[in-house]
Structures are given as C-alpha cells and as structure tokens.
Amino acid sequence: MIDHRDPPExxxxxxxxxxxxxxxxxxxxxxxxxxxxxxxxREDFDPIDLPRLMPGMILVDVEGERPDGSxxxxxxxxxxxxxxxxxxxxxxxxxEDGYYASSLDSALGAYEFVRSRGIPLYDPLDFVDRRxxxxxxxxxxxxxxxxxxxxxQILVYSERLRSRC
Length: 165
Description:
By secondary structure, the protein is of the alpha+beta class. It is built from 3 helices and 6 strands. The radius of gyration is 15 Å and the shape is globular. It starts with 20 loop residues before the first helix and ends in a 5-residue tail after the last strand.
C-alpha cells in the first residue's frame, strides 16, 4: 500500500516495471493520448482501443471540493470485473459508498493524490476485503482534464494478481 501523505510531485514511469502488463499497456495508451500535455482530456481517450482491459476499468468524476478542500469523487462507470469483486455496482455512488480498498482513507487518499497533483499513481494493493478474502492487485489511477490544469475525471484500472498458493 502506498503512503499518500507526502508523495512525490512527479510520476516516475519506472515504477511500472513491477506492474502487470495490463497496467503498463493502459499507462502507455494514456501517455500517448496526452500528446505532450500534462494530462489528456477524456475525449482524447477511447477505451474501445483496449477492449481486454475494459472489465477492470473504473471512471470517476471529480465533482468539486468539500469545505476542507478535499475532492468529491463519484463513480461514473464501473467495469464488470470491479462490479463482481464488490458484489454490487457502485455506478452513480460517491466513493465513500462503494470503495474497494483496505480503508476509506486509503481509497480517498489515492483519488486525492491524483486530483491535487494531476499525475498518475501506481498503487499496488494487498488487503483483506469485507468478506475476509485477500485481495492483491496491480492498480493505476490516471487523470483527465478538460482545461489542461484541473482534474475532471480519474481513470482507474486494477488487475488481480494470481495467488501463489
């Protein structure tokens, strides 16, 4: 689990050497879509180009800020693998009502990291879910911006790691 309290201000693609091929493929596509900008717009990115990855994708809207300055995040689209893992579809819900992570603070911290910095976050996960199952995932969060500055949406992709047991 990544400590989101004082992370770097720039993304180092070298961290993806430990990532799954799907995470690396999605990052490379996102990186190409931004065409030299700090982040692409959602319009620049077409998930149809990555059909094998679509079941593990989540699109989250950034709906503004709370009084404390933290972001408000809502699930716009949730891929079928992510729905199955949760055993419910959180589409349309706030992150607080549908997160799948070790804790709400961890989930919100990852989204806030991406929103506040406008950079990707590679976040390998290892936690026990609410049903007592161990979850090991390779995950990445990627920002979109309509104005080139403000993060308007965050694309998440998670891929389950095979258990060695």
